[in-house]
Write a structure and sequence with these properties.
Blueprint (H helix, E strand, L loop, with lengths): L1 E10 L10 E4 L6 E4 L4 H11 L6 H16 L5 H7 L2 H11 L4 H11 L3 H4 L7 H8 L5 H15 L3 H9 L2 H11 L4 H14 L10 E5 L7 E8 L7 E13 L2 E12 L1 H9 L45
Antiparallel strand pairs: 1-7, 2-3, 4-5, 5-6, 6-7
Helix pairs in contact: 1-2, 2-5, 4-5, 4-7, 5-8, 7-8, 8-11, 10-11
Amino acid sequence: MAKRTTSRQLSGGTGSGCQVTWEGKNALSGSVDVFDVLSDSLGNALNAIRVSTELIEEELRPHLDTLLTIAQERKKGVAEQVVENSILPVLAQVLWRKNCLTLKATKLVAELAREPMVRERCFHSGISSALLSLLSSSDQELLLHTGRAIGRIGYDNTLQQEKLLRNGVVPRLASVLLRYPANEVLVGVCLLAFCSLADMGEEDGSSMVWERAGHAAQGEWVFRGMSRNAAGSLSSTVTVVRLHEWSTGQYMVTVEVLHRCSTVFWSAHNKFSSTVRWFPMPHLTGWPKFYKVVKYSAQGFPQNGSWTAKVFHTLL
């Protein structure tokens, strides 16, 4: 098997009273046409949530249900309307209240966080800090959707990653992972969140299967993740997450992505090496069993000129 390794380390208002409409441009004339893309129920839901001040549970629940259903369908333009109508600050308030609507609001945030426009505004709207507070919950379903939301907020967004890390997301996620090791789905969500925070996540990690590796040192936990669809393919990707508690409540997480090629691939490479250059890396030849490793480092975090890896040390 041939491997290429990539690694990172971690440590540690309301709007106006106007009705909801969408605007679009005519591709031919360039003129702007206003058209009602949202259904009446979605428009009513957005307006009702936006103008809510007391957050009465019975009044909000049906509107959150409507918005969650539409968000799960990934309707185009919904994220823009959620942002423009100041829905995120309202959802942050619901999360902070920790009542019977909290789980539903967390599910909604996790769905909306798939969209870059929503991710960019999660910190300033109060969503991120509210989610971090939920990681101390004992409700495993709530933890599942909270971890999923955090992972999606951090995906492909360096600014959100750094803000979450500075606010202590690593030890909180580590605590959840270690408290519920038998909950495979929850463990997988936490591991995917670590990958996103290391800027090595995938947009959709639902196909990943995780297993805990054996023979780890004391105070260290190692997990391997692989796509369900990788079996039998000529190449595959394996993600390795190492969690190390180097002091009480202080963790370092290392994320590695290994790109592996089967022996069939390398047999073909050797057979046709005279005509095809698969990997122009002559300085890496000679490894036993076609083991080829390429390591990449990232700029340090927090900023420290002496660091060459992305390491985050945070406290509970």
